[in-house]
From TrEMBL, chains A, B, C, D:
Annotated ranges, domain Glutamine amidotransferase type-2: 12-232
Designated name of the protein: Amidophosphoribosyltransferase
Residue sites binding Mg(2+) per the record: S295, D357, D358
Family (UniProt): In the C-terminal section; belongs to the purine/pyrimidine phosphoribosyltransferase family.
Catalytic activity, EC: 2.4.2.14
Catalysed reaction equations from the record: 5-phospho-beta-D-ribosylamine + L-glutamate + diphosphate = 5-phospho-alpha-D-ribose 1-diphosphate + L-glutamine + H2O
Cited InterPro entries: GATase_2_dom (IPR017932), Ntn_hydrolases_N (IPR029055), PRTase-like (IPR029057), PRTase_dom (IPR000836), PurF (IPR005854), PurF_N (IPR035584)
Keywords noted in UniProt: Glutamine amidotransferase, Glycosyltransferase, Magnesium, Metal-binding, Purine biosynthesis, Transferase
Function recorded in the entry: Catalyzes the formation of phosphoribosylamine from phosphoribosylpyrophosphate (PRPP) and glutamine.
SUPFAM superfamilies: N-terminal nucleophile aminohydrolases (Ntn hydrolases), PRTase-like
The keyword Nucleotide-binding is assigned to this record: no
Upper taxonomic lineage: Bacteria, Bacillati, Bacillota, Bacilli, Lactobacillales
Gene3D superfamilies linked: 3.40.50.2020, Glutamine Phosphoribosylpyrophosphate, subunit 1, domain 1
Source organism: Streptococcus downii
């Protein structure tokens, strides 16, 4: 089992629409609002009266469709789209979704967000039975399972296939006569359903896409659910009853856009509550609050309001950082860093700063920002994190697969504080996080997956079991 | 006198460095932090022991130098750079700066931020004497004046030329043996001097560039001053004594980066004070404060702190909006608008919102945002603007050249409120603005140019005099 | 059975090398000399000690590898490459070869020139057994057949797969430990083997690639043969004994480069002999010979020498025609045509011209060139064609699939002469063609496939049988 | 005086049209047929009722106008265009023509083919009087001279300016109300006038452009002539009477397209006569004639017909060579060479070959081709050149500026033969060349400039005089 394969199957965004004459263009608008979920590649597949058409490529959505002809040709009244997360592994257009499967008797498209935990086993078994995979992505597996099912009808085939894949997944499939959305039994990844004024049905990883296209939210897809959309409307079904909500808490903490709602909770508002709770858990004296732009601004707002400290713009992120091809020499490395983020000495000089960030992974970024603030004259820098310490890998769709990358897996809070050079370090408590998010549910952990914080995974790990065991033993440090 | 010519000479950013082995790369980093001042084109010109080399093109800095070889070839220990503002007029690489002038006996480079008010007269006179201009920019005029001066030495020629051009200008010139910076007699445009640890001297439109490259601010260039930098250090001289500080107040309100300091005043801090003052002048009941991202966030912070109202993220700006080539159809226009900015219904629903913006030009953007907020469920939208009403054109370097484009030139505050659909509309007072900025100076208006608010220009308008008169009479409305 | 699928599987070029440290670069040089065989896309796949690496894209080879890094990364001592023919059908990078198949237990690459006549049946059957195809190309079928074979060893699997596919094919497969080349039982497509001075073995569609890389020709691959190249050298085997040479005569007439040798016959020399024979069959008076550049120049040389008439440059092809994006308006259509080819009035004025071309398909080009010559002043234009009349479709790898496209399928020679506006029209006789080429063989038709001329196909047509029958009946004309 | 400046002003193509609604598109077609005269850059400037519009850029014409919008925007009924020769010097869009000069009282465009011999003196003098040049090209000088003339009317100014510039030049100027073409007093460069059926007048470097757009040739511009085209038709005038035809013989030998006529002589026909004459001057036994493609094919035809030897395709030029970005390693250098040109062993093996080329400059190419032929098995290679030995530089528009680059300046014919490895070497005699071309004129040397062959320049050399003297003395060899 190689790491290369696994690191390719991570965080992404999916969108689908059924029943609108501008299906592909609306998918473009929807995907645009999901661009933060993946920047490596993008694609749209449309269905024009049974003819499936697709355009996909590496790059941002606007680059992929730089030539408007590539969007114009995607005619039809239904479409699905995908934005793909950039990983270190093999970058190839073969892995860009939606995938398109053509047969002599049918055809369909597929978009997938998540990570399967039994992909290796399934692939190996399928290959031994003659299957050929055209990508190194695990998203293709479902199509093989559907085609090889002996169930006599299509819905039966799909349900059988869904019951065989394990892990985290939100799928959107586009057939000639219907669109199908499905979620894993724990609902690890978000997926919402909306409706447009003309009756068109839309499905999206996040509700922010609904605001953009003027759709109204209906409800979120439930764990283990399968949603069938066709010209007769929406039909809800399920492929399993063994379900329990455990949505990824990192969606609220970091991934999702602040204007999205997930399971009835607005993300910005949840983050403000995390900030307020963090302020209550924070035990130090300080003068000002400074959020690390852009992801921590909501947390900083909540912290400032609760603590009564002024919220200041002590760190500036350059908005033109997306694509710089100039590699600074060793001597100019520091300048390269400051191109993206700079501390405002006029704001922080002589101040005791509470530096708010959403999370700490390796700690290198935090260390750098603390240093920027101190060089700009901050007298003290107290780091307060809007989430608990990340100490365990994720196997359901986030790109953290080993404990070696995680500073909190290898160091105590005090060690971490010293490494990043802060005057204090405060993490939000797990309970504080759960209370702040506050999904209405009876599921354990408030319906959240918090396994990266406590190592308690809601499902068996299948092919990753061995990796995980080894990971726990190795516990080596990368700061020496 | 055509408008085409004038609209080409607007807001830009300039940077220069003398005495560093990585001069061009540091200029790249410096310009990168000035990118907000101009996105149409960019260029860098370096001086390698008397050999001037240049690369310039249309597009963002990172696009212009997408091929690193174009930066690597700019060897030498001094350099100047320029980022150019995008205007509706003729877009051509001929107008991208720095300009490079080569003669059989010498050569020099030139970068210019500002707008000359006697450009037409000077051009006409020079052409009648045989001059040929290679651009439609007014920035080229200074070079002709320098070359045609009968003064026997170079500094004399430059001073003579500077005394002939009128209006707003910050120039950086690069000669084989020196770098020269010069500011107009009113200091309309900002220009600061800094020093690096190795002794290299840097000049920049804004001090944020100094943070990026690790330079220390020395002081701002004074009105009417000419600064000569060579291997012997910095020398301050002046070409006129008839000076009076009147720096563009829009630099504090909108243009400059929050982390820059201008004439000793931090821009973010000034904006917070404007927000606090605006809160004091605001006379309505409300529940939450929502700043229009990104330029109004500091003002919103100040308003929220002073008013005690919570500061909320009720509007989300998509960070991936820079380059969309897809033109929405008429039917999809609204979706196109929401791609860039969307209102967060989870935040604003049922709330009386104070919507904070930095300024109103035509009013179309404000009208759209008010509508977004109301559609997202805001019960009331009170628009509060961090600056006075823009009612008069600018001739010193901002791209507002006719009153017809300005809603406040043609409508009362109450009419404007109705047009934009707000429940109330509050502008910051001129005195409130001046007090909030608070430059230490004895100059009138606190050292600020506020002519766009009161029509009282600090200088004669020269070639624009007639345009301005006609503009006052026409006073037609574009909202009918 | 749709036409879309068939039109994607046409004329291409393949190249392979085993045992050279610069394998990918030499493949680049080799493919460059095969570029005339396909301009839609290109790709190279290398083998670095068992690790297969690939780069492929739409466009000319030089465009696909515009960024040299894409070639540099293809390390290893063996490689295969492919250039793909441009067709009207679906253009997608998915169809660009070499294909790369990765499994948990092995991996291999595949490049294919030719067209399978039982592709539809095989695809349908494989899909019913669960196979998923990732391209719309028939080249992928062989990989599925190999993987599904129950033969216990790899060579057995490959032989079994080769015996199942029908039609015209030259395959090159690259495995971790060997390179395999195979030809169909009729040898419809050319494939030659060569050796470099360092012992490296090369395989190529045409021998012109050997000249370019300094390799020496060993021999051509025989019908039904399978060639295995590994570190122990070359091994010749076969998967069938039911073979009979029927190489595509259009390779000699049009496709192949003049400097290539096929089955021991130099193409330029064969064409000169066709020209000489054509001169003997030609029955008219004329003053000068003018070849249509570039493909007919050899034929024109042979005609001129045999006839004693001067060979003149009466038609000029612009060498800069590859990529013009300007679409002439209806009014300017004629100018657009002349951009590519123009007649030299100084040469043809008042002359009785023998216009030599290699073949006539629709007749539209011939009609246009006759008109150009007459407008330039030619008193008579006698069209002499270096091949017999094309009257039947090809199913073995040439992009002529219906009789409707062929003027000679629907019109007599005299009708064709009138349509193209010539004073006379002479086709080379089939016997004349066979004698001119002169392969040393006992096979019928001198070892050539001449089915497009006489409708006598050397194999059953399988999936195309029905199409062909229908085609014979329809016999409609497109000139009315 | 630096060489950098001189090497920028070389061989180019110009085109102009007055009086056609599709002026810019026809200019595109015309320039396309002149692309062989320059591939570094291209531009078109149109005149839409007094508004001059332009697009220009680096690259081939089809690349410069890859986006059709750039051509569509060039509206108007008159236009001029330019294709620029690629030189080693500074490549910059600033040097791409047509130049566009805008003044407050007028504007005009300028396209120039040729080289001025007093450019340095004129530039220096103009700069001392305040002029600023925007390019490093000498083509800009004429505009400065026109603007500074004290002559009261425009035609007077233009004539005065034309009388001040020396050397070789063909100018096309486009004013709001007229198009002006002018030729130097020796007519060094070709320039022809044509007419379209709608009455539009066209001017072009070569008549091949007339064929492409369907225009009829009227006559060639005469030395010292100035042609004025406006809505009243064509008017012929002159700015000097001191004229004598000395058209560049290299136009017939190498530069011009075979289908062009210059001063009444068809270029292909002239080359055939050169070949026939060369055959008469050739004194060796041989079996076949092989022309170096593409420029020597006409000469080879003439040689073969006169000698009775068969004309064979013994060398093949790959038609896909224009843009290869792959740099072969030192080991693969030979393969890189063969990518462009390869010898056909099937044709030349065992034969005594007459290798025909148009000219020899450094001799490196000839040496390489001789080697290719011998490696392909030619028993003897006799090199026969369709022009006399190039031994002196050109200062009128060809990029040969020093004797050091010319093998014939430093070596006898026998030495050259040994260096290139040929069995014999035959140059065409100067008298043979003059007779073969055969312009109807009383001018010396048959109206041709043959100074590169005999060193006898038809004009003073002005700024180049000193360079030339030094060049004669140095006479160093680059083959040692």
């Amino acid at each position: 089992m190689t790491y290369e394969v696994k690191s390719l199957n991570e965080e992404c965004g999916v969108f689908g629409i059924w029943g609108h004459p501008d299906a592909a263009k609306l998918t473009y608008f929807g995907l645009h609002s999901l661009q933060h979920r993946g920047q490596e590649g993008a694609g749209i597949l449309s269905n024009d009266q049974g003819q499936l058409k697709r355009h996909r490529d590496m790059g941002l959505l606007s680059e992929v469709f730089r030539n408007p002809a590539n969007l114009d040709k995607l005619t039809g009244t239904s479409a699905i789209g995908h934005v793909r997360y950039a990983t270190a592994g093999e970058a190839s257009v073969d892995n860009i979704q939606p995938f398109l499967f053509r047969f002599h008797d049918m055809q369909f498209g597929l978009a997938h967000n998540g990570n399967l935990t039994n992909a290796e086993s399934l692939k190996k078994e399928l290959e031994q039975r003659g299957a050929i995979f055209s990508s190194t992505s695990d998203s293709e597996i479902l199509a093989h399972l559907i085609r090889r099912s002996h169930n006599p009808n299509l819905m039966g085939k799909i349900k059988e296939a869904l019951s065989l894949v394990k892990g985290g997944f939100a799928y959107i499939l586009l057939f000639e006569d219907k669109l199908i959305a499905a979620l894993d039994p724990n609902g690890f990844r978000p997926l919402s359903i909306g409706k447009m004024t003309n009756g068109a049905v839309v499905v999206s990883s996040e509700t922010c896409a609904f605001e953009v296209i003027g759709a109204e939210w209906i409800r979120d897809v439930k764990p283990g659910e399968i949603v069938i959309v066709d010209d007769n409307g929406i039909q809800y079904d399920s492929y399993t009853n063994d379900t329990q909500l455990a949505i990824c808490s990192m969606e609220y903490i970091y991934f999702a856009r602040p204007d999205s709602n997930i399971h009835g909770v607005n993300v910005h508002t949840a983050r403000k509550r995390m900030g307020a709770q963090l302020a209550r858990e924070f035990k130090h004296e300080a003068d000002i609050v400074v959020g690390v732009p852009n992801s921590s601004l909501s947390v900083a707002m909540g912290f400032a309001e609760e603590s009564g400290l002024p919220n200041e713009m002590g760190l500036i992120k350059n908005q033109y950082t997306q694509r710089t091809f100039i590699q600074p020499t060793q001597e100019l490395r520091e300048q390269g860093v400051r191109m993206k983020l700079s501390a405002v000495s006029g704001v922080v000089k002589g101040k005791r700063v509470v530096m708010i960030d959403d999370s700490i992974v390796r700690g290198t970024t935090s260390r750098r920002i603390v240093q920027l603030l101190k060089e700009a004259g901050a007298s003290e820098v107290h780091v307060a994190i809007g989430s608990p310490a990340l100490a365990y890998p994720c196997f359901y769709g986030i790109d953290i697969q080993t404990r070696q990358e995680l500073i909190a897996a290898n160091h105590t809070v005090e060690e971490t504080r010293q490494i990043i050079g802060a005057d204090s370090l405060t993490y939000l408590s797990i309970d504080g996080l759960i209370d702040s998010i506050g999904i209405e549910t009876d599921a354990p952990n408030g319906g959240l997956c918090v396994a990266y914080f406590d190592g308690d995974y809601p499902t068996p790990l299948y092919d990753y079991e061995e990796d995980y065991r080894r990971s726990l033993e190795e516990k080596t440090s990368f700061y020496k």
